[in-house]
UniProtKB/TrEMBL annotation:
<dbReference type="Pfam" id="PF00107">
    <property type="entry name" value="ADH_zinc_N"/>
</dbReference>
<keyword id="KW-0560">Oxidoreductase</keyword>
<dbReference type="InterPro" id="IPR036291">
    <property type="entry name" value="NAD(P)-bd_dom_sf"/>
</dbReference>
<dbReference type="Pfam" id="PF08240">
    <property type="entry name" value="ADH_N"/>
</dbReference>
<protein>
    <submittedName>
        <fullName>Alcohol dehydrogenase catalytic domain-containing protein</fullName>
    </submittedName>
</protein>
<feature type="domain" description="Alcohol dehydrogenase-like C-terminal">
    <location>
        <begin position="171"/>
        <end position="288"/>
    </location>
</feature>
<dbReference type="GO" id="GO:0016491">
    <property type="term" value="F:oxidoreductase activity"/>
</dbReference>
<dbReference type="InterPro" id="IPR013149">
    <property type="entry name" value="ADH-like_C"/>
</dbReference>
<dbReference type="InterPro" id="IPR013154">
    <property type="entry name" value="ADH-like_N"/>
</dbReference>
<feature type="region of interest" description="Disordered">
    <location>
        <begin position="1"/>
        <end position="24"/>
    </location>
</feature>
<dbReference type="InterPro" id="IPR011032">
    <property type="entry name" value="GroES-like_sf"/>
</dbReference>
<feature type="domain" description="Alcohol dehydrogenase-like N-terminal">
    <location>
        <begin position="24"/>
        <end position="127"/>
    </location>
</feature>
<dbReference type="InterPro" id="IPR050129">
    <property type="entry name" value="Zn_alcohol_dh"/>
</dbReference>
Length: 328
């Protein structure tokens, strides 16, 4: 089959790869649409020691089952492969499974024509849904999970809360749209890329440039950091209100300074967020399908064969899209 393979730092190759061979309990899925995630970019930059080239990246995918219990079924992939037996899996928090794995990390991902994946990791797609929209389920579920945890930790309900989202990629953009859907009193989105700000504004969001507007009024009850850099963590802790909540999703810079004193003195709740549960995936798929999150016309669709150029455009900030979707 053809696949886009991460071969070295800032290098990919569209080439022939061996056909996936499903094991017992696995299905063979033909990929119809797959998104480029920030973690894929992180690997492409050579910053993720868990993703060792040569490797087929990609985990935000929709496709059709070719072999397995339900051939012909269109599905979204749950890329998290877990044991199903540990305390966390049994409690419904499988994203914390100690033995979890992820397609596109240690095993081949979805930047190929086909993939083998456990049948338990397949979620049926509603009839007639655009596969490119269905492929947004994974990043949407990441934002959904983060905001659900943040709302649980918040002192006041969302309807009384001012919210700031840092980062206008798919997780940030979807997070802001979810906050509006959930009834947050105010939602602002900080994004340094002018093209992405235009995209967010066109989606009906209050987007601004945090560099041109550095004196953003503080006092946000909830801050979603969808970037995860030293600068964005600093901005999050400086703009959140005393007693507020910071939901930290992004992983661009894992190390760096952290103002624990300010967080402590202001009783700020800092919530680390990792991926999602299957419940989050199913809820996100439904919200994407029924139009609650808008038209979703802010995606950029390209052939898988042109994926290498897509990585380069994203790296250079030339793409206005919050999400680039590759189509095999």
């Amino acid at each position: 089959m053809k696949a886009l393979v991460y071969t070295a730092t800032k290098q990919t190759e569209y080439r022939d790869e061996p056909e996936p061979q499903p094991e017992n309990g696995e299905a063979l899925v033909r990929i119809e649409a797959v998104g480029i995630c920030g973690s894929d970019m992180h690997a492409w930059h050579g910053h993720d020691p868990r993703r060792v080239p040569p490797l087929i990246l990609g985990h935000e995918a929709c496709g059709t089952v070719l072999e397995g219990s339900n051939p012909g079924t269109r599905v979204v992939l749950n890329p998290l492969i877990t044991c199903g037996l540990c305390r966390y899996c049994v409690e419904g928090r499988s994203n914390l499974c100690p033995s979890r794995d992820l397609i596109g990390m240690r095993r081949p991902g979805a930047f190929g024509e086909r993939i083998a994946i456990p049948e338990n990791n397949l979620i049926a797609v509603p009839d007639g849904m655009d596969p490119a929209h269905a492929a947004l389920t994974e990043p949407c579920a990441t934002a959904w999970h983060a905001l659900a945890l943040a709302a649980r930790a918040a002192w006041r309900p969302l309807a009384e809360s001012r919210a700031l989202v840092i980062g206008g990629g798919s997780v940030g953009l979807l997070g802001a749209l979810i906050l509006k859907t959930w009834g947050a009193a105010e939602v602002r989105l900080a994004e340094t890329n002018a093209l992405r700000r235009e995209t967010a504004t066109a989606a009906g969001l209050d987007a601004f440039d945090p560099i041109a507007e550095p004196a953003v009024p503080a006092g946000f009850d909830l801050v979603l950091d969808a970037v995860g850099m030293v600068a964005t963590r600093r901005a999050a802790t400086q703009t959140v209100a005393p007693g507020g909540v910071v939901a930290h999703v992004g992983l661009q810079e894992p190390a760096g300074d952290f103002d624990a004193r300010s967080v402590t003195l202001s009783e700020i709740t800092f919530v680390g967020v990792y991926t999602y549960t299957e419940t989050d995936l199913r809820a996100s798929l439904a919200a994407l399908q029924d139009g609650r999150l808008g038209s979703l016309n802010w995606i950029d669709q390209r052939p898988l064969a042109e994926g290498g150029r897509a990585f380069e455009d994203l790296d250079a900030g030339r793409s206005s899209a919050a999400k680039v979707i590759l189509r095999p």
